Amino acid sequence: MSHILFTAAGCARCNITRNFIREKGIAYEEHNINGEGKELFGRFYRDHRSAVVRGKEGIEFPVLADAASVRQGVGRIIAYLHSGTKLDGFINRNSLSKGWIDGLHVSGGDPALKEEFIEVLGFLKKNGMKLQLDTNGKNSSLLKDLLERELGDRVIMDLKGPQSLYRGLLGEEIKTTEIIETMQLVTRFPEYRFETTVVPFIRQGGLVGYLTPEEIEETAQWLREVTGNLKQPYILRLFVPETSSDERLPSVRKPSPDALFRYRTAARKHQVLTEVEKVPG
Predict the structure, then answer these.
(1) Cβ-based neighbour number of residue 208 at 10 Å
(2) 181 by DSSP, 3-state: which?
(3) What are the chain's domains?
(4) Which residues partner with 65 through β-bridges?
(5) 5 with 18: CB under 8 angstroms?
(6) Is the peptide bond before 213 cis (omega within 30 degrees of 0)?
């Protein structure tokens, strides 16, 4: 069975996907949802509702289907056509518009696959997409390669917390030298920022508690010491219990947005530009 590609009229990301398919000589059927493919996609969506995301602005196109998978969005589709499911850790669903693509997780995939990841990013960049990368400190050597190849227009580092708690907050082993290298590399990209989510975590003894203002101050101090700059763009984010995969955490009481201002005051002792994430509504 060939790949079935659903596209929309005037969709630049659909054009990029189509270019990749043709360049690689991949067999496919295309259906324009604004024309002859409208009814076909309607039936397809009813049958695959769980696999196709509908956002506030509707369904993002293109959508690709074959006998094994349904993929949505230019990055996910090109990665799948290039490498099957191997790059799934690196590339997730895009949520940005106006020429930008995100869902590009430098820390999320197998570094042994970096050349395949780089090739996909290179194609997206060559076709006019601006790349927003994210990292939590892992795979710093890959981030360095992306910097050298100019495959990153913006980088967001999820700075988990202070050095003393980083491994526990990340939930896996990581060398401190790798975190430090990542922090330094991030500042060399055209646009960047650091973010810390004030999360609850399981401390020694099994008690669950949020990061404290003092621990956020320690994080900001570490950022200043590593980068040599007390004016880094630094955002504090509110934890959303419903998004946690740890079954012990969704029941934790969600702090009020106003509580973050105490954390901001603490962080500004070492990062004077610290701001609190704006919460919609």
Answers:
(1) 13
(2) helix
(3) 1-85 (3.40.30.10)
(4) 4, 70
(5) yes
(6) no
25 φ/ψ angles, rounded to the nearest 5 degrees: 70, 35
Predicted confidence at residue 85, as pLDDT, reads 97
Spans in the chain with pLDDT lower than 70: 1, 241-252, 279-281
- Could you give the count of Cα atoms lying within 13 Å of 168 in the half-sphere of its Cβ? 16
What gap in Å lies between CA 155 and CA 8, rounded to an integer? 30
Q: Taking the model in full, what pTM does it have?
A: 0.93
Torsion on CA atoms 224, 226, 229, 230, rounded to nearest 10: -10
Between CA 274 and CA 263 the distance in angstroms is: 9
* Three-state DSSP state, 183: helix
Residues 42-59: tens digit of each pLDDT: 999 999 999 999 988 889
Tens digits of per-residue pLDDT, 133-159?
Answer: 999 999 999 999 999 999 999 999 999
DSSP string, 88-156: TTTB------TTEEEEEETTTS-GGGHHHHHHHHHHHHHTTPEEEEEESSS-HHHHHHHHHTT--SEEE
For residues 180, 182, 187, 193, the Cα torsion angle rounded to the nearest 10 degrees is -100
Residues whose CB falls within 8 Å of the CB of residue 222, separated by 6 or more in sequence, listed in order: 162, 163
